[in-house]
Amino acid sequence: MYRMKVHFIAIGGAVMHNLAIALHKKGYEITGSDDEIFEPSKSRLASYGLLPPEYGWYPDQITTDLDAIILGMHAKPDNPELARARELGIKIMSFPEYIYDQTKNKKRIVVAGSHGKTTTTAMIMHVLKESGRKFDYMVGSSIEGYETMVGLSDDSDIAVLEGDEYLTSPIDRRPKFHLYKPDIAIINGIAWDHMNVFPTYDNYFGQFKIFVKKITPGGTLIYFEDDPEVKKVILFCDESIKKIPYKIHGYLQNKAGFFAVSHNRMVQLKIFGEHNMQNLSAAREACYAVGISEDDFYSAISSFEGTSKRLQKISENKNGIVYLDFAHAPSKVKATLEAIVERYPDRTLIAVLELHTFSSLNNDFLPQYHGTLDKASSAFVYFNPHAIELKKLTPLTIENVKEAFGNNKIEVYNNADELFSKIKGLKSKNPVFLLMSSGDFDGINFYSLSEDLLSDK
């Protein structure tokens, strides 16, 4: 039996190495290269025998017996392996092109929006799995019960895909979500992000106008109707598209826990927060659209525990709780912090945010964070001057950052050791710590930090 041969240029990326593993498990012959590979990609590739023996680019690996090249975003347009593949006329595909090619004969649910994509995608996956439905998937975070962030099969008729608006590849400047051609599309919210790629809000908003035009004729658009920007974008849909609006799902919380509430049921959940109830409503409509019953949806969603770094509880004891969240864009920071405040109204909330992305470290974008940390009892913001230098941005000052957030009580640091030394020394009774970043505060071990924060002082 013939084994498809696929080579990955820049195999070490988060989604790239997951796709490599998924195809390896499917029986494909996989090779790959990269000039640097970090954990956890390195160990995971090694465990499947897919880690390149040496780092670097080796054009000799590119031979005519390859069925396809998958090109990762980390590679440069002048990559020598890419040049060799072009020379030999080998098929070159980006990650999203390949995902679409593998799922083009399936009903594709694509979850888009500036926030909530990963959690909403994971919710749909969880319900389908609990309901016994087979499906392909691609999601942007590790999920309990799934070995990889990508799953492809020959015997499913549904694909659930997280629709990221970031660029496709070094030689294809289209946003990834333009390539998936959804049968069922979700837009959970629109708030300016990725300033390095979309320098103005209008430019960013325009990508969603294109996205809704990519929905297959007669398809479905599920949209959050309380976001005025989302309501603007649906006007660009084809007339054949069925439009399904949704609102934040009803909920209540008390000492017993957090509950989803509707006119005929109350279901205890393992997640919490108003933003997650918005995600839940989107996931519910998508599940209904592929034939999941109301009873089956609520039965399944009650056991959903969330995803890695999305209000992930790192540690809890009598001295407090530590949560970790991927929040980095202003809308995400605000929603995450408000979820914690609402869940623990009588406790001291200590919020710690790292500015890590290109947008968040940009002087012109920083004012978007105004007021986002105001509801915290104590708030700290950290940025690394070296990261700004690497991104070739105008240097930030502590005063710049404090002014942008519009809160004189916020403490701003540009040295991670000093920041965490200060936080460890805080005296609060049974506080809740919320650590927010798309990075890692310069390599801190969050579990060790949690032990220090919650130790008996």
Give a topology summary.
Blueprint: E1 5-9, H1 14-25, E2 29-33, H2 41-47, E3 68-71, H3 80-88, E4 92-94, H4 95-103, E5 107-112, H5 117-130, E6 136-138, E7 150-151, E8 158-162, E9 167-169, E10 172-175, E11 184-187, H6 201-213, E12 220-224, H7 228-233, E13 242-246, E14 251-254, E15 257-262, E16 265-269, H8 274-289, H9 294-301, E17 312-317, E18 320-325, H10 330-343, E19 349-355, E20 378-383, H11 385-390, H12 398-405, E21 411-413, H13 416-424, E22 432-436, H14 446-453
Helix pairs in contact: 5-8, 5-9
Produce a short descriptive summary.
This protein is 30% helix and 22% strand. It is of the alpha/beta class. The chain folds into 3 domains: 86 residues, NAD(P)-binding Rossmann-like Domain (Rossmann fold), CATH 3.40.50; 204 residues, UDP-N-acetylmuramoyl-L-alanine:D-glutamate ligase; 142 residues, Protein-Tyrosine Phosphatase, Chain A.
